[in-house]
Amino acid sequence: MNATTQMNDAILQVEHLSMKFGGLVAIGDLSFTARRGEITALIGPNGAGKTTVFNCITGFYKPSEGMITLNRADGSSYLLERLPNHEIPARAKVARTFQNIRLFSGMTLLENLLVAQHNKLMKASGYTVLGLFGFSGYRKASAESMELARHWLEKADLVDRADDPAGDLPYGAQRRLEIARAMCTGPELLCLDEPAAGLNPKESAALNELLMDIKNNTGTSILLIEHDMSVVMQISDHVVVLEYGRKISDGNPQSVRTDPRVIAAYLGVDDEEVETVLTEVGDEDVIEQLDIGPDAAHGPGTSSSYLAGPVTDTVGHSEGERVTVSKGASKAAQVDARANLPRKPSERATAKPTGKSSTAKPRGGRK
Ligand SMILES: Nc1ncnc2c1ncn2[C@@H]1O[C@H](COP(=O)(O)OP(=O)(O)OP(=O)(O)O)[C@@H](O)[C@H]1O
């Protein structure tokens, strides 16, 4: 694969992105790529910086440093951090949904999908009232908008409720309507912020089906923030993991799932599974870490600049050795530090589960 092909394969390139809020470094030197036609998931514990990354991509925040490049299928590229906010959906073709549903709840489902196409319709009217009645271009655009709205209502399995107010829909259906509305803008990159939050298993399955349909049958690539690991593991092609604003893992779902740094930072798997995986990688120290629970001293909210800081901390090791890690080090960094310790081969071979039950949970709860 040559360099040009690789460039075209990347719909989104995030390079050395940093976002600071006063003394708080919410994102620190983050780089990753989302490939065209794939579902890329951005995961990490609460406060890891996922929504901040979305806000930088979609123009809500201007990053402190770094470059965000959107490569459209027609070969044009846009530096999103330099594009005015309103041009990001219109020119770069990036659409997003939010953690909190933002539908027009008093409008019908159909009206919600037509409003999303307002710009296209206004353009076709020539921006005049006369245009609304006189231009054949407007009538054609209007018919196309209705057709597109109907298409996405069908895809979202909502066509039977087209004339109901959006606010009357069950929660899972509202989530699908939001995605349908975003798809009516014809995005090349669809950014979804926790689309499965609050869904029951049946609604979650319907969401997975809709997202797989988008992936397989449209040219739209998906970037997804999600806490629901059943969604992430089932539909993602590529997973990027953040902790304290830094990338700690990047790969396919299977490799990320078994990465000890991820397990230590973001316990999105069953307790038994955590122990099995850690035993397989021979790291009993991490299991002990998990039993201690979340590292409140290093968590968000307790430090005004927890990514930076030369202060060091000395951590006792079960075999009497001592590992020095930076005081602000994340659990992932501590796992890395321990991984560098010399170990006797015989000890590695005989590593056994401790039999202790891991009690640590992902930091914080869902919003
Ligand atoms: N506008 C802001 N001003 C100050 N701090 C902010 C702002 N937005 C985000 N932060 C801080 O940046 C850090 C990352 O927040 P962010 O919401 O991006 O995390 P997240 O990974 O999306 O979390 P969650 O999973 O809970 O949604 C947090 O410490 C948060 O308090």
From TrEMBL:
Taxonomy, superkingdom: Bacteria
Domain ABC transporter: 12-269
Signal sequence, start to end: none
GO cellular component: plasma membrane
CDD domains per the UniProt record, alphabetical: ABC_Mj1267_LivG_branched (cd03219)
UniProt keyword tRNA-binding present: no
Stretches the record annotates as Disordered: 292-367
Gene3D superfamilies named in the record: P-loop containing nucleotide triphosphate hydrolases
Keywords for the protein's UniProt record, in alphabetical order: Amino-acid transport, ATP-binding, Nucleotide-binding, Transport
InterPro entries recorded: AAA+_ATPase, ABC_AA/LPS_Transport, ABC_transporter-like_ATP-bd, BCA_ABC_TP_C, P-loop_NTPase
GO molecular function terms attached to this record: ATP binding; ATP hydrolysis activity; L-isoleucine transmembrane transporter activity; L-phenylalanine transmembrane transporter activity; L-valine transmembrane transporter activity
Keyword Nucleotide-binding: yes
BP GO terms, sorted: D-alanine transmembrane transport; L-alanine transport; L-isoleucine import across plasma membrane; L-valine import across plasma membrane
Protein family per UniProt: Belongs to the ABC transporter superfamily.
PANTHER family in the cross-refs: CONSERVED COMPONENT OF ABC TRANSPORTER FOR NATURAL AMINO ACIDS-RELATED (PTHR45772), HIGH-AFFINITY BRANCHED-CHAIN AMINO ACID TRANSPORT ATP-BINDING PROTEIN LIVG (PTHR45772:SF11)
Protein name: ABC transporter ATP-binding protein
Organism: Rhizobium loti
